[in-house]
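WARN no homologs supplied; continuing
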Amino acid sequence: MSIDSAVSALRVADFRQAISANNVANMFTPEFRASRAIPREQITQNGVDAYSVKTDHGTDLAEEMVEQNVVMSYAKANGKVIEVHNEMFGSLIDMFG
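OK structure emitted
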């Protein structure tokens, strides 16, 4: 996984969290339909992005809790990729610097 992929994945995590937060915030809004963030691979740009789609139902709080936990794990994993990349790059600079 490249650093670009990890950065784009963090952007997708942020987008997914924002969609979920909006769903929860509007849980009691009459006629509100929840949205879902759909991640997709960016073949030409080495990463991922996401788009949102409306569902045919309102907010399911249990579904949103699961989504937020998944997004948190997704963000932590991609943050770790960036952290390891930075450590490796620092080691290279130390060796050749």
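The chain has a mean pLDDT of 91.
OK
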